[in-house]
Design brief:
Oligomer: single chain
CATH architecture of the largest domain: 2-Layer Sandwich
Bound molecules: adenosine-5'-triphosphate, magnesium ion
CATH topology of the largest domain: Beta-Lactamase
Length: 659
């Protein structure tokens, strides 16, 4: 199957587009990942830092409680009243301290750990608290503080309100590990205990106080205020903090769908496993109540080091994702604009690059049609320019070769024509000389036979004429016989001259002199009276070896014929020329007479061919001339058209070759 036909430009643009789009998509993909990761990593680092701030707030609160309890336990008044057993004063004083410092409980034990008085519930006393984790340490004269899980029974002893504040319905939470029970009855408390010592330093009691964290939002809200400063995103608070009692949210500012604090909800299952079960911090994104947050969770440990809860801070992931998306969107739009810009640049630059090629393609088509003069106009100095230059050179060579071919064709035609003409002439000469030779033979035979009887007739006629008296009627007839017989004799002589011309007496002969002699002889002839004679002799003409007498006969014949053809009126031109190449002299005798008919031309040199009236011409003049010229190894030609005059050319070689 053939691939579809695309133009060069489309192919270029498509391949660039493929590279750009591929590169673009790849960089967009990598870019989006990078931007997301960078943004989220930075945000996550901030959250981790926020958790430290949350711990500061949390521990500050613990320290605060510890300070209150320690200072109160060390009071002189407390010690004295306790030693003296003044319970009324103690209740009043400690009650005042509790309410003054916002503590939920403030309880005094005796040195065995039995409750002497509960400020929140003075009626409930006498029970043993020596096994309480914190109280026990204080009984050992240590000052301690920390978070602690307090069962509902213990809370009820302090106050019903406090126990109910801790009581919490467990709300089923998506993605959380379900709990078997539906209610949490115990509470988590920040608690501090300090020993009460007498003057000698002996333990006389223990004072402990604390605040219940369940539904107490002081710490989490303070964290939010310090760390997130009320940041909001699309109407929602972004920063959140939570205190978990085990996996249960007991104090939080994470909101549920209804916009209320999501206390009673449970932690995400994965966080529970990592933090509560494995005791590791969780420092990455997590699902919180109903959305994804960038989070930090760390376990809250009791004074004995037992994990009893989790401290959490987190910020909504969505704003960061949206920022990343926004950046990506801007980036994508810019990339798309860049692609469009690049493509248009590409389109114009490929157009510029391809235009010369298109011109070349058009030029090749022109040249293929045969317009070899077509040139490619490319001015660029790159490879295409060089190509166009070579292409033009190639076309030039092609044109030159073609011109030569055409020229050669023409000269060939001319040459063929010339050769054909030459051949035709040679053939005509050949035919003519053969014909003349056979006629010559015949004529010679006849002439020889007739010559003797004619001689006899002439002698006897003369004798009879001499014997015939003057005035005899026969004398006139006899004279006629003598005249006609003489004429016959001349004819026969001419025939013999033609058939068996005398061997020429070759001497150095000046052609021009010879021609002038002929003219001098003719000048007085009646026919020449009104004929203008023009001479055009070659400036240099070497003498040739020839029989002057015989050649004179030839020229006289031709000149006389010319004069007769002009009927005594016209121009006779004598022209001589030297052809050094062919080593010959040409004598041209031109007249302005009636010319020669085409059909007569072939027969001109035949003996007895004449157009003159009977008795006027013998028709032997040209025949004899032909014989003489041939003996001189020359040629005789005629050019003529009826009514246009005639031109006879006699060509004679400068040097004779031995026959
Ligand atoms: N210059 C010329 N112009 C026209 N016709 C010519 C010319 N020369 C020769 N001829 C023709 O050629 C014929 C043959 O010429 P040629 O000289 O052989 O014989 P002739 O002139 O007729 O007779 P003769 O020369 O014996 O008196 C002529 O009769 C004439 O018709
Ligand atoms: Mg003649």
């Amino acid at each position: 199957m053939r691939s579809p036909q695309f133009s060069l430009r489309t192919k270029l643009i498509l391949s660039f587009l493929a590279v750009i789009v591929l590169g673009g998509v790849l960089s967009l993909f990598i870019g989006s990942k990078l931007i997301r990761n960078t943004l989220l990593t930075q945000a996550q680092a901030k959250v981790r830092h926020d958790l430290s701030s949350a711990w500061m707030v949390f521990n500050e609160k613990v320290s605060n409680i510890k300070e209150i309890v320690t200072l109160t336990a060390a009071r002189e008044g407390i010690r004295g009243a306790l030693q003296r057993g003044e319970m009324g004063i103690l209740i009043q004083y400690l009650g005042h301290v509790r309410s003054e410092n916002g503590l939920d409980i403030l309880t005094l034990l005796d040195r065995e750990g039995r409750v002497l008085l509960r400020t929140s519930s003075p009626d409930v006393a006498g029970d043993d608290e020596s096994q309480d984790e914190i109280a026990r340490l204080a009984l050992e004269r240590k000052t301690v503080a920390g978070p602690q899980i307090i069962p509902r029974g213990e809370l009820l002893k302090e106050s019903k309100t406090l126990a109910d504040q801790a009581l919490m319905d467990i709300i089923p939470t998506p993605m959380a590990a379900p709990r078997a029970e539906s209610q949490e009855t115990s509470g988590m408390m920040l608690k501090a205990a300090a020993p009460v010592l007498n003057e000698t330093g002996a333990l006389i009691g223990v004072l402990y106080g604390g605040i219940l964290l369940n539904r107490n939002y002081e710490i989490v809200d303070r964290v939010k205020e310090i760390v997130y400063k009320g940041e909001r995103y699309k109407g929602r608070e972004t920063g959140t903090a939570t205190i978990f009692q085990n996996d249960l949210r007991i104090s939080t500012n994470v909101k549920n769908e209804q916009g209320q604090r999501a206390v009673g909800t449970l932690v995400w299952q994965e966080v529970k496993t990592a933090v509560l079960d494995e005791g590791k911090p969780w420092l990455t994104r997590a699902f919180v109540v109903n959305d994804w947050y960038l989070t930090a969770y760390e376990p809250i440990k009791s004074v004995s080091g037992r994990i009893i809860g989790i401290l959490y801070v987190g910020t909504l992931e969505k704003p960061y994702l949206d920022t990343a998306n926004r950046v990506m969107r801007t980036f994508t739009i810019m990339a798309a604009l860049c692609v469009v810009f690049l493509l248009s640049v590409l389109y114009f630059s490929t157009s510029r690059m391809i235009r010369p090629l298109q011109r070349m393609a058009a030029a090749t088509q022109e040249i293929a049609k045969g317009t070899l003069s077509h040139r490619v106009e490319v001015n660029s100095r790159d490879e295409i320019g060089a190509l166009a230059e070579s292409f033009n050179q190639m076309t030039d060579h092609l044109r030159e070769a073609n011109d030569k071919l055409v020229e050669w064709g023409k000269t060939l035609e001319k040459k063929v024509e010339e050769r054909t003409q030459e051949l035709r002439e040679i053939q005509a000469h050949l035919i003519q000389s053969e014909k003349l030779a056979s006629i010559g033979k015949l004529a010679a035979g006849v002439a020889h036979e007739i010559n003797n009887p004619l001689g006899g007739i002439l002698i006897y006629s003369h004798l009879i004429l001499e014997d015939t008296p003057k005035g005899s009627p026969h004398s006139e007839n006899l004279k006629k016989i003598v005249r006609e017989t003489t004429r016959c004799k001349e004819i026969v002589k001419g025939l013999l001259d033609f058939a068996r011309p005398k061997e020429p007496q070759m001497v150095l002969t000046d052609i021009h002199e010879l021609l002038d002699k002929c003219l001098a002889l003719m000048e007085n002839h009646a026919l020449f009276q009104n004929i203008r004679i023009e001479k055009s002799y070659a400036p240099v003409c070497p003498r040739i070896i020839a029989d002057g007498g015989q050649l004179q006969q030839v020229f006289m014949n031709i000149i006389l014929n010319a004069a007769e053809a002009m009927n005594g009126n016209g121009t006779l031109t004598l022209r001589t020329s030297l052809d050094p190449a062919r080593q010959e002299v040409a004598v041209e005798i031109v007249d302005t007479g009636h010319g020669i008919k085409e059909e007569d031309k072939r027969r001109l040199f035949e003996p007895f061919f004449t157009t003159k009236e009977v008795g006027k011409g013998t028709g032997l003049g040209l025949a004899i001339s032909y014989g003489i010229v041939k003996k001189h190894q020359g040629t005789i030609d005629v050019r003529s058209e009826a009514g246009q005059g005639a031109a006879f050319t006699v060509r004679l070689p400068l040097k004779r070759t031995s026959p």
